[in-house]
Amino acid sequence: MFTTKNVTGDQRMESCVTSIQMNLFVHFALIPAVLITLFLSYLQRRTRPHIIDDKLPLEQRFGITVPVNFLSSYSNRWSYSAAWGATASTMFLLFFDEYSNYFDFSAPPWARAFVYLLSALEVGMDYYPFFACLATTHKLIGSVLGFLYALSWFCVQVVDLFQCPKNSPDSWMTYNKLMPLPSLICSLFLMGRFIHIFVKRMVACRRAEHIEEEEPFLVHHQFNHVKLLLRRKCDRDDMKKLSILQRIYNWDPNFKFPLRMIITVVLCLICLYNFILADFYLSPKAMKKLHSWILRTVNLSHVNSTNRILFILKDTWFYSTFPAVLYCVIYIFHLLACYRKQMRALWEGKMKFIPLKRTPAIVAASIRYTGNQVAYLMWGYLVLHILHFLFGLLITFWLVLPIKEGRGMQVLQGFGYTLLGIVLLLLVIVVQVVAAQFFFLQDKISPSDRNKPLAINNRRAFHNFSYFFMFYSVILGFGICLLRLILSLLLGSWFLAKIDRSLFPRGYERIDVGYCTWIGMLRMDLHHTHPVVLVFCHLLIQERDVKRQQKASEVTTPTDFLQVGKKQRCSAKWQLMYTLLNNPQLIMDRKQSNSLFPVGQEALECQILSTVHVRNRKQCVQNKE
């Protein structure tokens, strides 16, 4: 990865000495990053004048540059995802607290949180030009600066990556070359994107073509979604007939995932890749340390059995990696399906599954969603790996080893007893349900009813049945409670990374911070990307523009201008009359030459009294009605 000194410690320093000090490059990269940001800010004009414009001739320059539009952007999704992918290796270092080692000063324990914050801010500033050059409206300058800055980072990372000797005994060299590969590929894609933008702008300048700089207010797929809503329901139902492949994933041309979700998926995949490589590197070292510790503490007569147990632990940990990885990858893509399903439900007004939160908390949750999702996925993979590892050990020591040692009948006998107890529990529950269906419930009121009414028949038999099963229900409840506890632990560990569903029961969703983060992101996207609202606002904007054009076309001659001015003056006088009648105390503040009322204290008092009398009469009439 980026660092050579801090990843593996002193052993790495002895086996690999590089001429590029990555910690110094990270710090000095702030200089061009700040300069590029200031230059792009200088090109960005502010929409509103400021007080400083009167003191300095800035011409409303030095506007705020926007790196990424997380609210309502659907364009350049893969370019921004590549830019975030280029930062994934550094983000992975932040996850393991390696990036803070670039700071040479030693901080006390209470100040470590500030060091983490400083590290995150420096990383954000180092990579800020990637996004600012993509988002700027000055595409020609932004593409040149972005390409040069991305090229400098790419070259330094590649040189730092391949400076170590090939015959190094440290196996970390292999993983150190594999880890940054996704980020380097994203950097190459980003440089190619900058070249494409530069060529496109140069061709447009030669042909004198105009290229739309800003993203349109209403995106095409949102307009098509509203058109589909205006169709008849039978036509929409005909379009929903799905084939077998579409039942696995139904592609909707009228729905596009926003930029935030694509960035989240790319970051999750790259960070998961790095986490798996780190797992493959660190787990053998942990096993070696465990083996050496056991040899120092265990009696030599038990060395063979100890080695066999260590071999089982090593293989079980290795093979348990694959189901954990498979589940995490499936979940990453399932995340998109859950987002689309819940956003459609929110568009239809189905908000029962959303806990109510204050608007500042919703905005804060939306801000931290992407970073939290990556961290939850890393922890979810680790917990899943440990869970599958324990499950593999359970199968090995309870099933595989006894069978290999000739104790297969004992295993089968124990399995049969366990299965018999489970079958008996289920059989009792089934008997209770069948008895309730055929003996204790009254018949259907109507033959077309789906279920019987909840009305008890044969009450004496019901009371006796409940009495005798009361004693067995204690034993049954003990087993079911234990099963509930085990299932809660398994499902809680299994769905730790799935923040689209709460781990807590209904009514306690607010305790789940991850779920509240997901809900905050959904509500922010709902309020800023609702297709019906956007189409409505688009129609209002179009109507406003049409009225402005009509007014501009009507005022073409001096006589027309006089007529329009006369109408405006009449309207202004009428509004003035209405305001003064309702607020007579304003009469004294007007100029006498333009006053519509006689000026004076007595006249003002008369006017106030008359206004009060009129209002009282109106209230009396309304009360009588």
From TrEMBL:
GO BP annotations, alphabetical order: vitamin A import into cell
Membrane topology: Multi-pass membrane protein
Subcellular location field: Cell membrane
Annotated GO CC locations: plasma membrane
Pfam assignment, any one: RBP_receptor
Sequence intervals crossing the membrane: 20-43, 78-97, 109-128, 140-159, 179-199, 257-282, 317-339, 385-403, 415-440, 469-496
GO molecular function: retinol transmembrane transporter activity; signaling receptor activity
Protein's recorded name: Stimulated by retinoic acid gene 6 protein-like isoform X1
Domain of life the protein comes from: Eukaryota
Gene designation per UniProt: LOC117348513
Record keywords, A-Z: Cell membrane, Membrane, Receptor, Transmembrane, Transmembrane helix, Transport
